[in-house]
Specification:
2 domains; 10 helices; Rossmann fold; four-stranded antiparallel sheet; globular; about 280 residues; Spermidine Synthase, Chain: A, domain 2
């Protein structure tokens, strides 16, 4: 078997065997490869960094989608920046009460190849009539004219290449300008054990814009190094502190059937390790 080595960190990494390559090309924005690993199944790697795998994607996508949507409780329209593999769209479409879903993805090839070679990620969600796909840069879209959103989810790559602007002060300012009062913004924020500077920078930017900012976490095995952090921002602190009973009622009403997410885990995910809390306090 051949092997591919992840290049996210200079002095540390992981490698994956692959027995079949389904697609490999330099797109207009990044190098994209989709291959099969005997343990993780089909995997997508962008610019040498693991993005998603068939085996554990449900953890990431359920936590990135349902924490914000169920905390808000009355989502009518939602914006996803990135998420071209379709997993986050799949989870959003399970919420029947959402009227409109907008997805802004910079790389059309990621969507096209994910539909073809990672079909279980989207599971038909790209054909949901509520979905509007915009091919373009997320910051440009947010700066344009348009309706505000109840929830905005940023499902981006790491802050390198096409994903770099999605971690900037300008991006977060634009997010604030497109959220409805009481809206929620969430985003992937890397593995804090290795990327604590990234998390601290996000905290610095968000706390100047929102009255309630925090992070929550989940362990995703293919994102090596421990827990994955998700940024949280809102002007309604009550949304982050809902009781388990209220979350359970909303979960049952939604009709969701999750493999990772549950209301008890929702609340517990906001409990962060001390090294993360100390890093935030030092910002």
């Amino acid at each position: 078997m051949s092997r591919i080595v992840e290049t996210l960190y200079d002095a540390y990494g992981q490698e994956f065997e692959f027995d079949e390559v389904y697609f490999e090309r330099k797109t207009d924005h990044q190098h994209l490869i989709i291959f099969h690993n005997p343990i993780f199944g089909r995997m997508m790697v962008l610019d040498g960094v693991v993005q998603t795998t068939e085996l554990d994607e449900f953890i990431y996508h359920e936590m990135l989608a349902h924490v914000a949507i169920l905390a808000h409780g009355r989502v009518d329209n939602i914006l996803v920046v990135g998420g071209g593999d379709g997993g986050i769209i799949r989870e959003i479409t399970h919420h029947r009460g959402i009227r409109h879903i907008t997805q802004v993805e910079i790389d059309r090839t990621v969507i096209e190849m994910s539909r073809l070679h990672l079909p279980s990620h989207s599971a038909g969600a790209f054909d949901d009539p509520r979905l509007e796909i915009v091919i373009g840069e997320g910051l440009d879209f947010l700066r344009g004219d348009g309706e505000p959103y109840d929830v905005i989810i940023c499902d981006s790559t790491d802050p390198i290449g096409p994903g770099e602007t999605l971690f900037s002060q300008e991006f977060y300012t634009a997010i604030q300008g497109r959220l409805k009062p009481g809206g929620v913004f969430v985003a992937q924020n890397g593995v804090p054990f290795h990327q604590i500077d990234e998390l601290c920078a996000t905290h610095h930017h968000l706390r100047s814009l929102f009255t309630d900012t925090s992070f929550y976490a989940a362990a995703v095995p293919s994102y090596v190094g421990g827990i994955m952090a998700f940024a949280w921002a809102s002007d309604d602190q009550r949304l982050r502190n809902l009781s388990e009973e209220k979350l359970l009622a909303r979960y049952r009403d939604s009709g969701l059937s999750c493999r990772y997410y549950n209301p008890a885990l929702h609340r517990a995910s906001f409990a962060l390790p001390e090294y993360v809390l100390q890093a935030i306090q030092d910002v």
